[in-house]
Amino acid sequence: MWRYLAGGTATLAIVAAGWLLAGSSARPDAVLLPQPKALRGAAASADPLPAMAPEATERSREQKRFDRFDKDRDGKVTREEYLAARRKAYAKLDVDQDGQLSFDEWAVKATTKFAGADTDSTGAMTPAEFATTAVTRKPQVRAKCPPAQAPEES
């Protein structure tokens, strides 16, 4: 019997809460937020917010990679900019600073890659030339799991 009484009380409480929420008079447009100091006064009457939010530009993976290398943002990747990452990696590899690993031996692949990509031999790569240096990625292959076996009944 007490279960029916508890269930009925809970049902009435839920109905009362729904009625209170549905009948509330709060409106989202009635909330006033404080304005920054720069907008107070004469400029406060103008609408400070644009009608639409600006949209981010869609940049390709290659454009983002080019921008990471182009440190001075001049639209070209120079040999020094291209080899900067290699210099940092070399400094990390030559921990004891004994000079056993020469930079020219270590960076021969990057130097050759740069020379091959710099088709007009200007010493700097244009975005189109830089695109040829992208690492080709292998598509990820998912492991194929065997199907689950049904439990044996004894």
TrEMBL record:
Residue ranges that the Swiss-Prot or TrEMBL entry lists as coiled coil: none
Domain of life where this protein originates: Bacteria
Annotated region described as Disordered, given as residue ranges: 43-72
Database matches in PROSITE patterns: EF_HAND_1, EF_HAND_2
UniProt GO molecular function: calcium ion binding
Biased composition (Basic and acidic residues): 56-72
Name this polypeptide is given: EF-hand domain-containing protein
Residue span, EF-hand domain: 57-92
Name of a matching Pfam family: EF-hand_5
Biased composition (Low complexity): 43-54
